Amino acid sequence: MDFEFSEEQKEFRNQIARFVDERVAPRAEELDESCLFPLDLMEELGELGYLGIKYPEEDGGAGLDQPHIYHAIFCEELARGSMGVGAVLAMHTSTATFGLYKWGNKELKRRYLAPALQGKKIAAFGLTEPNAGSDAASLRTKAVRKGDEYVLNGTKIFISNGTMADFVTIAARTSQEKGFKGISLFLVDTATPGFSVGRRLNKFSTHCSDAAELVLEDVRVPAECLLGEENMGLINLQKSLNDDRMITAALSLGVARAAYQAALRYSQEREQFGRPICQFQAVRFRLVDMLARLETARLYTYHVAAKADQGLDITSEAAMAKLVSSEAANYVCRMCVSVYGGYGLMEEYPAQRYLRDSFFPLVAGGTSDIMRVIIAKGMGI
Q1: Given this model, what pLDDT does residue 152 score?
Q2: What pLDDT does residue 327 have?
Q3: pLDDT at position 232
Q4: Residue 180 has what pLDDT?
Q5: Can you tell me the distance from the alpha carbon of 129 to that of 213, in angstroms, rounded to the nearest whole number?
Q6: Alpha-carbon torsion, ordered 127, 240, 10, 48, to 10 deg
């Protein structure tokens, strides 16, 4: 494994890091308490061109040579400032817009993708249902062709960006054939009659990143809103799902870095028994273990991003990156709380927020056990 950031990528990281330090991190606590996503930051990032990192110039994107590495850097830095902000924008700039970019016609891209990459519209991806979580192939939302339209009925749940979205890519069953082959993808404008947000779901993690229940009751969409071939939706979307897992790994790196750096600073400032607590072996060993897990996860995640930029299949590798990085982040954040001691439980300190937010990547994009299932299949067992 040989990977090194280019000078351009290092400068890109410096630029987005400055934005995070100046515009995101100072508001992280406020956003966590208010449970509101900062739309002004999204518009700023759109104006600066950051939301189009993964897409070519002809579709309003940045046209970068190694978009997966750049996108991972972007998501890592955002999550370092606020995991909630990172989660919203990671979804918006990847899975939620990928189907539209890949299979949408020019008019759909003009109406939805271009403004989404400018930060003027918000996108969501509707896959999970009350009875179809890890077993996505068993979803029940249906789409029936009627003339030049499809009529959609069903319920989605745990949908990131769901309460804010201007459009949603909905996965719906168009055939009774079992498994992924009977599922198709549709672009649904949230202003369409019959579409509604059933409720916003309150969670203890990533407060400013919303999760919603979405209801579709006889929602009629033009046939041109079918993204890709009928009955091939989730098969076609596999590449994007792999990217989503890799980006979830990058988000994990961000919150882990924030927790490690906070714990290190605190250990150097906090004194007990006449000296900084970082001089006690128990604390030093915790910090060493935190750094070791963080750096290991970081190297592997960017190795996978580099493979994706080479056009290689990363199905197993993306699952491994997510598994290793999300669990490393949760460990690092738990150790951060332990370094803070009693103060780690206090809301006036960030340690408790880092720990809460570190549970998000353990579930988002598929649980750790589902990642193990994917990896085991790649191993042939």
Answers
A1: 98
A2: 98
A3: 85
A4: 72
A5: 9
A6: -60
Query: Which domains, ranges and CATH numbers included, belong to the chain?
Result: 7-117 (1.10.540.10), 123-233 (2.40.110.10), 236-379 (1.20.140.10)
pLDDT value, residue 247: 96
What percent of the residues of the chain are helix, what percent strand, and what percent coil, each to the nearest 5?
60, 15, 25
- Tokens standing for residue 253: 């790196």
The low-confidence residues of the chain, meaning pLDDT below 50, are none
pLDDT tens figures, 163-211: 999 999 999 999 887 667 789 999 999 999 999 999 999 999 999 999 9
Q: Which residues pair with 268 in a beta bridge?
A: none
Pairing of strands 123-126, 167-173: parallel
β-sheet bridge partners, residue 213: 199
Is the separation of the CB atoms in 150 and 206 below 8 Å?
Answer: no
Let me know if 316 is exposed, middle or buried by CB neighbors in 10 A (0-12, 13-18, 19+): middle
pLDDT 10s digits, 272-305: 999 999 999 999 999 999 999 999 999 999 999 9
Q: What CA–CA distance (Å, rounded) separates 107 from 11? A: 35
For 11, residues 6+ apart whose C-beta sits below 8 A from its C-beta are none
Q: Are 290 and 262 in contact (CB under 8 A)?
A: no
Do residues 19 and 49 touch, judged by C-beta distance below 8 A? no
**Residue 177 pLDDT:** 72
Residue that has been written with the tokens 């992924």 in this structure: 180
Residue 131 — φ and ψ, nearest 5°? -115, 15
Give CA separation, 5 vs 11, 263, 291, 305, 329, in Å: 10, 26, 20, 11, 22
pLDDT of residue 138: 83
Give the bridge partners for 155, in sequence order.
215
Q: Which of 136, 156, 336 is nearest to 244 (CA)?
A: 136
Q: Which of 114, 196, 209, 102 is nearest to 155 (CA)?
A: 196
Cα separation, 175 vs 298, whole angstroms: 41
Could you tell me the two tokens for 29? 């606590």
Residue 210 main-chain phi, psi, to 5 deg: -80, 160
Q: Rounded CA gap, 257 and 309, in Å?
A: 24
Sign of CA dihedral 340, 325, 63, 7: positive
